[in-house]
Automatic annotation (TrEMBL):
InterPro entries: Chloroperoxidase (IPR000028), Chloroperoxidase-like_sf (IPR036851)
Cofactor requirements of the protein: heme b
Organism: Aspergillus pseudoustus
Signal peptide bounds: 1-17
Domain annotation Heme haloperoxidase family profile: ranges: 23-230
Name listed for the protein in its UniProt record: Chloroperoxidase
Alphabetically ordered keywords of this record: Heme, Iron, Metal-binding, Oxidoreductase, Peroxidase, Signal
Length: 265
């Protein structure tokens, strides 16, 4: 086959006009037969081929590599996450899981998610715009804080407990959930302040796509277990609804003996 100079230059031009041609991690939505689950990030990593695009056969090596190359998680954190996830496969001594396994209700998947309906109300794993609208209503400025994320978590739990008679949220769900609510900060935000740009988070949830075209890049320093614990701790602290008394009123005295004193004597 003969190539003219023009055709070669044309190909180069095409490649530079379409940088995705050579990008193995160019985003593709799931096709028929591809598994996806309730985790927007695992879905995203599969959509970008950091995980197998079909969402199957997620072994430790595959998960560790995907979290490293997609998000710069260090190997020990990624390996720990695999250990926590493997229970999703109902098979004994399993060495892999699939994105579909993650849908099993009350194994890892739980009620009051930020972007999915409760299993009682419908699909527990497909992105739900109505549920996500409830969540994002609490992200009240272009820079989302741990407090706003905590508000959305609490709100989703209250709506769920009010309207889902099967509402379940155990102590271990709480730990898992704190990590999930911290996750947007961990992936896209500032690990010192705990703040994250709202548009990056919304783009990620709504498209199950890394917000590269909005200027995001993976962190230069590898993300560690300590980072995750610190940011989850920020979310946990921000779920506390008790404030200090306003200093100007000096209303710090203990109230005793009336209904407003509650159980305190
Ligand atoms: C081994 C790796 C991972 C596994 C097995 C996993 C699994 C899950 C599961 C089962 C859920 C559903 C919980 C629910 O019912 O709401 C979930 C939610 C979530 N995950 Fe992951 N995940 C992994 C890694 C990550 C990473 C690396 C991030 C981002 C840094 C992430 C971000 C999220 C977020 C934001 C949610 C909450 C979704 C919502 O509430 O609607 N996950 N994950």
């Amino acid at each position: 086959m003969k190539f003219s100079i023009q055709s070669i230059l044309g190909l180069v031009g095409l490649a530079s006009a379409n940088p995705h041609i050579h990008d193995p991690h160019h985003w593709h939505p799931p096709g028929p037969g591809d598994f996806r689950g309730p985790c927007p990030m695992m879905n995203t990593l599969a959509n970008h081929n950091f995980l197998p695009h079909d969402g199957r056969n997620l072994t430790r090596a595959v998960v560790v590599d995907a979290l490293k190359s997609g998000l710069n998680f260090n190997a020990s954190l990624a390996s720990l996450m695999f250990d926590m996830a493997i229970v999703a496969n109902p098979q004994e001594n399993a060495t892999y899981f699939t994105l579909d396994h993650l849908n099993r209700h009350n194994v890892l998947e739980h009620d009051a998610s930020l972007s999915r309906a409760d299993a009682f109300a419908g699909s527990n794993h497909i992105f739900n715009a109505t549920v996500f609208a409830q969540t994002r209503a609490f992200w009240t400025s272009p820079t989302v804080t741990p407090e706003m994320l905590a508000n959305s978590k609490l709100a989703r739990q209250i709506v769920s407990r009010a309207f889902n008679p099967t509402y379940t949220f155990t102590q271990s769900t709480e730990q898992f959930s704190l990590g999930e609510v911290a996750a947007p900060i961990i992936a896209f935000g500032d690990l010192e302040t705990g703040q994250v740009e709202r548009e990056l988070v919304e783009y990620f949830f709504e498209n199950e796509r890394l917000p590269t075209e909005l200027g995001w890049t993976a962190k230069a320093d590898a993300i560690t277990q300590e980072d995750v614990l610190r940011i989850s701790g920020m979310i946990s602290a921000a779920t506390n609804l008790i404030t200090d008394a306003p200093t100007e009123t000096g209303a710090t005295h203990a109230r005793r003996g009336d209904l407003h004193a509650g159980l305190r004597v």
